[in-house]
Amino acid sequence: MIKRKQKRFNWILTIALLILSLFFLFPVIWMLANSFKPDAAITADMNSFRAFVLPPLNGSFFENYISVLTNTSFLRYMCNTLLYAAVLIVLGVIVNGLAGYALAKIKFPFRERWLMIIMLLMIVPMETIITIHFLIVAKLGLLNTIIGYILPMIVNPFNIFLFRQVFISLPDDVYEAAQLDHCSAIKYFFTMVLPMSKSVVATVSVFTFLNVWNDYLWPSLVFTSGKLLTAQIGLNAITSNDNTTTGQTLAVITMITIPVIIIYSFFSKQIVQGVMSTGSKEG
């Protein structure tokens, strides 16, 4: 009897949450539906339920998207951003992972103080140190280069802390057994540690992708060449153009939003596991 009541309550709760989620999805549904419409149809449907309904599938269905992709460089901006994100994910996992492993498993002088410094850096907003990053990159002559954009973004105190919290729980006897097989510390990290920590690797990868995908301030300072610009700068350039229609604006915003939704949908479970595992460790 109790189990039946529990199942009934779970069903009611699930239905209620699904209905509630629709209220949060309304803006996304409206944006997606109207991104396929001409401006006249958007204005005509604004005050009716048709604003959330896709237009009929005809020859002009994808006109807004085709216009944006053919008349602007937005596709190039998206490809640039994906490239930067891929490079930063690989470098970020390696660099921050090695730093987190050192803080978790390697004894060296002032290790706890270094950990404290990293934790303090987590509360420092990016806007307060971005001027220093810009001056250093400018002094190195790396402005308007991919290296100048990527270099300051590789090390992330929050990602180091995430890795450290997961690595601290790894059993030491596994490393001792690997040493008996003449496995070096670097080889052990890449062949054993990272595979055993897939959840935090996925979490860091998704966070890195979202940071790069949504970043506007830093690339706008570093890049001046149109060939290197990112998606967010392209979005601002296109939407601020007086010749851009409302439908085209919604099409661009949709192309910016959909990848984020897809990435989070695929890796939401790993993100939750990674954050929960980092919060449950001590030391």
Structural account:
By secondary structure, the chain is an all-alpha fold. The protein is built from 14 helices and no strands. It has helices at 2-34, 39-44, 63-71, 74-105, 111-121, 126-139, 146-150, 157-167, 172-180, 185-193, 198-214, 217-222, 231-239, 246-279. The longest helix is centred in the C-terminal third of the chain and has 34 residues, at 246-279. It is globular and about 70 Å long.
List the helices and strands and how they pair.
Elements: H1 2-34, H2 39-44, H3 63-71, H4 74-105, H5 111-121, H6 126-139, H7 146-150, H8 157-167, H9 172-180, H10 185-193, H11 198-214, H12 217-222, H13 231-239, H14 246-279
Helix pairs in contact: 1-14, 3-14, 4-8, 4-11, 4-13, 5-8, 8-14, 11-14, 13-14
What are the salient characteristics of this protein?
283 residues; mainly alpha
Strand content: under 5%
Largest sheet: none
Indicate the mean pLDDT: 87
Rounded to an integer in angstroms, the radius of gyration calculated over CA atoms is: 24 Å
Oligomerization status of the protein chains? single chain
Decide which structural class fits the backbone.
Answer: mainly alpha
The count of DSSP E runs of length 2 or more, i.e. the number of strands, is 0
Helix content: over 70%
Note the total helix count: 14
The global form is: globular
Cα separation of the termini = 45 Å
Low-confidence spans: none
Along the chain, the helix and strand elements come as HHHHHHHHHHHHHH
